[in-house]
């Protein structure tokens, strides 16, 4: 493995979309397109065939001895959140690229084709909808649920994808048959601190905690802040604040299941210092690998809504609610990854993923494995996001061994010459 090359590739991609406040390579943006173009050029230099599907996923293929066999696919995403870091998603794409580079340098041929996939729109930052590329590839993309989506600049998803040369109505044509892929493997930063806390180098993910999301609107009554007595107010913001604490309390009650809940967006209107807020909205994210635990959090929130309405003299409406099912990784692949770590004497740990990944949808169609490498200080979705180069190389090494195991190495000219 070429450590310097991996670091240099990461730095080159990280210059695309870099700002003073972190990475801004949001989904279906010009910056994301440029990053995909860079990866495309690198893959074409390796003799891979490269295409972009109807959803904007970049798919590079190193042909196998038998092209009719299903591919061993490796990948992740290149889009980022606003003010994000340079490792999230990008690391998984670079890992796949480095594996193919090593196969070429070592003159390794495989029976099965090897694919590198850079998924489109994994992050929900732009449209409050995530994993669009992997949903499209696996046949789970629901266009009707996306039609009304707009970004913070009030631009529709239809308009945005059209600028990338894509047709919104054709995105579902990116679905692939079950026979196309043998296994899918993803390397990702942990985005938490469990590996570092446990002094482990590799996290073998057992399951992904899918999100349940809902949006609440609180209608109170705007009034003058100086003339309206405290007991006569219908303060929408204070009701929102109370509901936010209820969300926290409900999640803490489910701590044994590692269930978490977050109020990530709060909007307050009219937004004037001398006006009692008459309207507020909350966007809530609830995650767990235990579906029943997640439901209990939601039930606790809903139960408290009526009490808050009465005590605060407001009306609370659930505008929308989405729910995705937690997904478990393939048991045989999980065991294989653990065995590779044991044979290489790499400290590893089994753990769930609290964050969603493209693996979540790939696992619904093909056997899938997700590996984590440590995130320093547990940081992610932050400009200071960082993973040690040594840990990155260890992760790529484990991934390479898994790729060769499933793609089936048929010869190695370099080793034969040495022998």
Structure in words:
With 419 residues, the chain is an alpha+beta fold. It has two domains: 300 residues, Aminopeptidase, CATH 3.40.630; 113 residues, Alpha-Beta Plaits (2-Layer Sandwich), CATH 3.30.70.360. Helices cover 34% and strands 25% of the residues. The chain has twelve helices and 19 strands. A hairpin with a 5-residue loop joins strand 3 and strand 4. Helix 9 packs across helix 11. The chain starts with a helix and ends with a helix.
Summarize the structure.
This protein is 34% helix and 25% strand. The chain has helices spanning 3-14, 30-45, 90-105, 132-138, 157-163, 194-197, 236-252, 291-312, 331-343, 359-362, 389-407, 413-418, and strands at 18-19, 22-23, 49-52, 58-62, 71-77, 108-110, 114-119, 181-189, 202-208, 211-219, 223-224, 260-269, 275-276, 279-287, 315-323, 327-328, 348-353, 368-373, 409-412.
